[in-house]
Amino acid sequence: MQARGSNAGAQMHRMKAAKSDAATNAAQKQRIAQARAKMQGAPVAPTASVARVKRRHRGMVAAFALVVGLPTIIAGAYLNLRAADQYASYVGFSVRSESAGSSTDVLGGLSSLVGVTSSSTSDTDILYKFIQSRDLVERVDRRMDLREIWSKAPGDPVFSFTGNDSIEDLVGEWERKVRIQYDDGMIDLRVLAFDPQDAQDITQAILDEGTVLINELNDISREDALRYARDELERAQERLREARQAVTEFRNQYQIVDPEADVQGQVGVVTSLQTQLAEQLVSLGLLRANAQPDDPRISQTELRVDVIREQIDNERQKVGTNTEDVALSEVVGQYETLAVDRQFAETSYTTALASFEAARAEAVRQSRYLAPYIRPTLAQEPEFPQRGQLLAMIFGFLTLIWIIGCLAFYSLRDRR
User: Fold this and answer.
1) d(CA 101, CA 152)
2) With contact defined as beta carbons under 8 Å apart, do 92 and 187 qualify?
3) Burial class (CB in 10 A: 0-12, 13-18, 19+), 16
């Protein structure tokens, strides 16, 4: 009976769950049907219309034509119709120097007394600055009329010289026509002119003026070295003369040629007397041991001993003082100081003389010179202006300006 009751309860529970699921499904179907009805009644959005050219598009095209197209056409027409052909001349050179060991090196470190100075700036650096200087422009202009050379294309106001008679305008044109490259001690130049011979003449003039500058620097360097060596030699001579004069005055004052030799001589005399004294003392001891006390030989030997001792005392006093009551040791010290000064002066004089001779030998030969590895070239065909490259640069630069302008315009419009 209990089993039947439990089965009936489970069956009723399943029936209630089935009814609940059916109600839920019916509600979902009703909502779906309502959504479909709403979608069928809603209006459908129209398709996109055909794109049309608007005012802003026309403005961008007009701006491109005005900013990029028209200037490019004008530049192309000028380059092909009015721009004159230019010829390039090239030259390359470097500064070479010859260095030789100084004869003063054999004297060791004493060469520093008359040392040789060296510049911290390379001659090539100086030449590099000189080529870009106003001084060179004036020198070359004096040799050839640069204004006339660079004004041979009157119909080309862009690439031709159109300045006045001032040197500043000519320097500005020089910077346009002369290009310089400096790499690892080598200088390369490119000079432009409307005639190939003019371009070659200008490069040759630059090479000549550079050689003149290097020679001037070389002369100045040699003269400085020679003057310095001469001054050192004169000072060394004066120092040696004063040292020798001091030794001479010392000898005249003390009436001694060489105090050290005198001391050694007196020391030798004292040593000899001490030897004689020792011999007499030995003889005196033998006589006292073998002879009678009243033997006259004993008294004579004693007299010799006394005389020798007195003579030793006198010689020792001579070492201590001289005729002017000055200690001989002090005299020897003064002489040694003067001797050292004289020796140093002689060594300095020898070094200065060797340095002067080396500087004079250096002065008779050229130690620096300009070595061209590319002689001034003579062009056969014009290389400039590079029309295609210039047009491409103009077009690219103007296009960049146009793009930036458009972006700025739309950025400002969107902020309103």
Assistant:
1) 53
2) yes
3) exposed
Q: In what order do the strands lie in the sheet containing 368-374?
A: 178-183, 186-193, 87-97, 368-374
pTM for the model? 0.60
* Chain segment 27-54, per-residue pLDDT in tens: 777 777 776 666 565 555 556 566 676 7
Render 151-219 in DSSP notation, one character per residue: TS-TT-TTTS----S-HHHHHHHHHHHEEEEEETTEEEEEEEESSHHHHHHHHHHHHHHHHHHHHHHHH
Cα(321)–Cα(263) distance, rounded to whole angstroms? 11
Q: Which residue from 161, 178, 179 is spatially nearest to 170, judged by alpha carbons? A: 161
Q: How far is CA 225 from the centre of its chain?
A: 22
Q: 185 in the Ramachandran plot: left (φ > 0), alpha (ψ -120 to 50) or beta?
A: left
Q: How far is CA 375 from CA 131, 216, 365, in A?
A: 17, 22, 25
- In single-letter form, the type of residue at position 413 comes to R
Q: Are 270 and 312 in contact (CB under 8 A)?
A: yes
Q: In angstroms, rounded to a whole number, what is the distance separating the alpha carbons of residues 225 and 358?
A: 10
Report pLDDT digits (tens) over 354-375: 888 887 777 666 567 788 999 9
**Average pLDDT value for the chain:** 78
pLDDT reading at 106 higher than 70: no
Give residue 176's identity as a one-letter amino acid code. Answer: R
Q: State yes or no: cis peptide before 259, omega within 30 of 0.
A: no
Query: In angstroms, rounded to a whole number, what is the distance separating the alpha carbons of residues 365 and 222?
Result: 10
